[in-house]
Amino acid sequence: MKVEILYGEIANLLGEHGTQNLLVQALGESNIIRTPFPKRPAFLSGDVDFVHMGPMTERSQRLVLDRWRGLGDDFKDAIDRGVMFLFTGNALDLVGQTIEYEHSETIKALGLFPFDTLCRRYERRNEVVYGNFQSMDVMGFRSQFTTHRGDLHDYPFIKLTFGDGTIPGSQIEGIHKNRFFATELLGPFLILNPHFTKWLLSLIGFKDQLPFEDVLVGGYDIRKRDFSEAFSI
Predict the structure, then answer these.
(1) With respect to CATH, is domain 3-231 assigned 3.40.50.880?
(2) Model confidence over 36-68: pLDDT tens digits?
(3) Among residues of the chain, what percentage have pLDDT more than 70?
(4) Which of 29, 45, 98, 186 is most buried by its number of CB atoms within 10 A?
């Protein structure tokens, strides 16, 4: 199995560098492809099973999309042929139609899904979020300057029981199509949700224990209890 970490030196904010460490410890460095910016993503040439990208600054978003201009159909083809993706934090913004920066320009995104992003630099959304995916409880944290317009009900990832959706007012967080997953949630997301992580990695043939699995599951159980006590979930 081959896992590509896309632009890990710039796409690792808000703790998501921990996701990179988890993938390396679970799968081994020999199975990791570290693609630095601005190189062309390795999965576009094949022989990659799983692509991970974490959150970045707004300036980095623009640089990445400028580098990816014209690659929307290539990304779509990879999703259609079953390459697995996990985009976390504001990496999700890259796969919509546009990103509008308040008091600045609007830039085209990859155009893979029917939503637009509005970035307001001084209106941060912070909240805890709880829901489920395929009978697995999933949780995380949202900390972002962005809101979204559109309709993602045809691509539901996490069905929420607490917190706001990716499109404000909806009860759907993130995007899921084939083996493409994107979530605004942080944590790091894979570390906070070991049952989902183990299921996700099983799709590319991982059958072992996660690194420190007992500790990860123990922390997960504590967070579930805390959510239940605090929010009556």
Answers:
(1) yes
(2) 999 999 999 989 999 999 999 999 999 999 999
(3) 99
(4) 186
* Residue 164 to residue 45: CA distance in whole angstroms: 37
Burial of 148 (0-12, 13-18, 19+ CB in 10 A): buried
- Over the stretch 144-174, which tens digit does the pLDDT of each residue have? 989 999 999 999 999 999 999 999 889 999 9
Place of tokens 């992580």: 197
Q: What is the DSSP letter of 94?
A: G
Task: Record the tokens describing residue 184, joined without a space.
Answer: 């605004």
Whole-structure pTM value? 0.95
- Rounded CA gap, 118 and 21, in Å? 31
Which DSSP symbol is given to 122? T
What single letter denotes the amino acid at residue 132?
A: N
Mean pLDDT of 120-127: 84
Domain ranges for the chain:
3-231
DSSP 137-202: EEEEEEEESEEEEE--TTS--EEEEES--SSTT-SEESEEETTEEEE--BSSHHHH-HHHHHHHHH
